[in-house]
Amino acid sequence: MKILIINGPNLNLLGEREPEVYGKQTFNDYFTSLQFKLREVELSHFQSNHEGKIIDKLHEARLHFDGVVLNAAAYTHTSVAIADAVKAINIPVVEVHISNTSARENFRKHSYIAPYASGVITGFGMKSYELAVLSFVELPEKND
User: Fold this and answer.
1) Which are the contacts of 128, defined by CB distance < 8 A and separation ≥ 6?
2) If 45 and its partner were Cys, which of 5, 24, 88, 126 is the partner (CB 3.0–4.6 Å)?
């Protein structure tokens, strides 16, 4: 099984950006440990601060991956274009957030992506990514 993790804007600063919200670990360090822990899954990751590059990567993913774990970050709450891309591709997408977006500012409570996602996982820190990947492994029929 091949899963692509896509991270949106400002997530390249994990480990230094608002550690009280996002923790002190960099994504690259976390990703290395996730690959080791879930060796049965071929994991790749991509990060961009640019909406169009995220859309292009979603389009590309449909040709090479069994599913996508998407943390669109702030674009979750603003991007109809990314939501349309999720809707358009023929592979399952699980939306993830490190923080509990429902317990934060009001604008973070709405997701344009959620209606087209197979599921949404929020508030478990970096563990949210692992839970999302495990949803593909342990609940494959849910993601079809």
Assistant:
1) 71, 96, 97, 98, 121, 122
2) 5
Q: Active-site residues: which are they?
A: 22, 97
Report pTM.
0.91
Q: For residue 99, what is the domain's CATH number?
A: 3.40.50.9100
pLDDT band (50, 70, 90) for residue 116: very high
Structural domain that includes position 26: 2-138
**45 occurs within a structural domain:** yes
Mark the binding-site residues, compressed into ranges: 71, 77, 84, 98-99, 108
End-to-end CA distance of the chain: 13
Q: How confident is the model at residue 103 (pLDDT cuts 50, 70, 90)?
A: low
What is the tally of structural domains in the chain? 1
